[in-house]
Amino acid sequence: MSKGRENKVHIGIYGRRNVGKSSIINRLAGQDIAIVSDHAGTTTDPVKKSFEITGFGPVVLIDTAGIDDTGELGLKRIEKTIKSIDSIDLAILVTANGEWGVFEDNMVTRLNESGIPYIVIYNKADTGLPDRKFSDRISAVTGKPLHPFTTLDSSGVDYLTELIRKTIPESSMKTPGLLGDIISQGDIILLITPIDVEAPEGRLILPQVQAIRDILDNDAVAVVLKEREVDSFLRRSGVRPALAITDSQIFSRADASVPADIPLTSFSIALARMKGDFESYLKGTPAISELKSGDRVLLLESCSHHVACDDIGRVKIPRWLTSFTGCHLEFDVVAGLDDLPRQVTDYALIIQCGGCMITRRQLYNRLRPAIKAGIPVTNYGMAIAWVQGIYNRAVAPFTGNRGAGDIYL
């Protein structure tokens, strides 16, 4: 299993204080990477730990505070523990010492509501196995078997690893490609990559790097150039690319330079199709034309970064939307996975970035409350394409014969 850091399988480990969560992590990792103490509450906040589980592969395991924490700070820690569910692909729910009650029941409810698969572990089995009545009660609540476990026996680690392998969703084990289903071996793919104030010094931005790697993985040819070189390259080389991909910020310029018979999209839209809820984006984007004065728009960034004077999410998109609609709109911007500043139903539209720094699960869960509430959602690249009048062309490479313009406009 080969996944980039942002796409590794995320496993959350949950349970009361002092049930041995950190000890289990250390056994899985084969080294002491989590602090172990007999004192309850040693782990105070969710902590991500990247390591390789022998026989399985690289994972990010999220060590969490006890679900039975107490006091004002304890309640805040529990809140953070619950919130971490949005980041995981699989949960390990740990109990020990014959304890199971409202804390575990609440966690089971949360996991079921989020659709997260989970394993139930009875830790410290070396000090005594759970009785039949206890095991049957847990199975009745969870619909799952209760698995005895001890960190003192290496065979228990092998058993738990196999449980993880069997329980993890297949979709989490695979890294979906950006372009693999729309390009073929030997295709020439033109990547239009502006070098501006937001480009990291001496490097390409992550979506551009991911696109290059995906093209190479599919035995195609990547041609990378700046926007001002497109016309000259196409004229002098005679090359007819199978696809052109541009930075969304220069969509209009790329649209003018790339002949109409060459498919054109953006890095952001490719990421939206790979990671986001693309169908919801397609349905939600036209809501831009329905915005009215006083509406509030939420822009979601997947990472924290230095804000430039012409920042895409905080400056350019609000400016383009205001100009396109002719309306006075209110904008909120939330970076990373921070809490929203207000209720999701206060927004008329939500615009998500490409999400190159977060997992598919994190991005999906980020948007799920809005989608359930019927709030239109879209993506940076798709929103920009809409206001610049080239939406149909920009999504066409991924919509096939559905005729995105015919269905959604």
Description of the molecule:
- By secondary structure, this protein is α/β, with parallel strands linked by helices.
- It folds into 3 domains: 5-173, P-loop containing nucleotide triphosphate hydrolases (Rossmann fold), CATH 3.40.50.300; 188-269, Rossmann fold (3-Layer(aba) Sandwich); 277-408, Rossmann fold, CATH 3.40.50.
- Helices cover 38% and strands 17% of the residues.
- The strands form 3 sheets. The chain has a 6-stranded mixed beta sheet, sandwiched between helices. Strands 8-7-9-10 form a 4-stranded parallel beta sheet, sandwiched between helices.
- Strand 5, helix 4 (132-142) and strand 6 form a beta-alpha-beta unit.
- It is globular.
Distance between the termini: 40 Å
> How many domains comprise the coordinates?
3
Strand order of the largest sheet: 2-3-1-4-5-6
Stated plainly, the CATH topology of the largest domain is called Rossmann fold
**Top-tier CATH class of the largest domain:** Alpha Beta
**Roughly what percent helix?**
25-40%
Shape: globular
Strand content: 15-25%
Total number of helices: 16
The total strand number stands at: 14
What's the helix-strand series?
A: EHEEHEHEHEHHEHEHEHEHHEHEEHEHHH
Arithmetic mean pLDDT: 86
**Biggest sheet descriptor:** 6 strands, mixed
* Low-confidence parts: 1-5, 34-43, 305-309, 401-409
Radius of gyration: 24 Å
Structural class: alpha/beta
